[in-house]
Amino acid sequence: MDLLELLEHPDQRIRQEAQFALAEKGAPAIGALAGLLSRQGATIPRLHAIWGLGQLARRNPSAASAILLSMDDRDAEVRAQAARTLGDLRSESAEESMISMLADKKARPRFFAAIGLGRLRSTRATTHIIELLKSNADKDVYIRHACVMALTNTTETDSLLQLSDHASRSVRMGVLLALRKQRAPALVRFFKDSDQQIAIEAVRAAYDTFM
């Protein structure tokens, strides 16, 4: 049984050892892992292909190209892990795909796309992140967290403050939480927010951050 076949083994430990062994082979393994990733089939071996290519990309950036091709895969978890891995790699070539993924039908790809854009410090992503905060409407706290992390890393404090009177309370809450992470004194502007929960959160943020 070769290493690629072992990526389908039921024992996670064996799959992981096979993945690491393939990554140790360097450039010669890129084609094999990319081929496995491109084939529509069982999800788990394809995820190991992404993770293996991610390991290889730290030494050989060309390996990231194969991951990028899977950003529009029909398997949601493949899309999610592709975004996660490219975000970890801070692959600027993935920026456009990550922005598009913010509108994905599934939550996990949206989550990892937002986190990835934060790691890329993508200034182009701000308006799209705001739209995601608005459409999420605080229903999924993980999505809100990902948006907050993205705004924290991609958007200057002054630009965030311009959103302090946004019509969406979900956007305002996300902006406040991002300002908290930026340790921005200007978050006191939210003390007078029309939404009592946001005003209370602003007071807590100020106390925890500056007192």
Mean pLDDT: 96
Sequence of secondary-structure elements: HHHHHHHHHHHHH
Number of helices: 13
- What share of the residues does DSSP label as strand, in percent? under 5%
Which quaternary structure do these chains form?
single chain
Helical content class: 55-70%
Concise synopsis of the structure shown:
This protein has 211 residues and is mainly alpha-helical. 67% of the residues lie in helices and 0% in strands.
List the keywords.
mainly alpha; 211 residues
Structural notes for this entry:
By secondary structure, this protein is mostly helical. It is 67% helix and 0% strand. It is built from 13 helices and no strands. α3 packs antiparallel against α4 (43-57). The protein is elongated. The N and C termini lie far apart (61 Å).
Spell out the blueprint of helices and strands.
Blueprint: H1 3-6, H2 12-24, H3 28-38, H4 43-57, H5 63-68, H6 76-89, H7 95-101, H8 107-120, H9 126-136, H10 141-154, H11 157-161, H12 169-181, H13 196-210
Helix pairs in contact: 2-4, 3-4, 4-6, 6-8, 7-8, 8-10, 9-10, 9-12, 10-12, 12-13
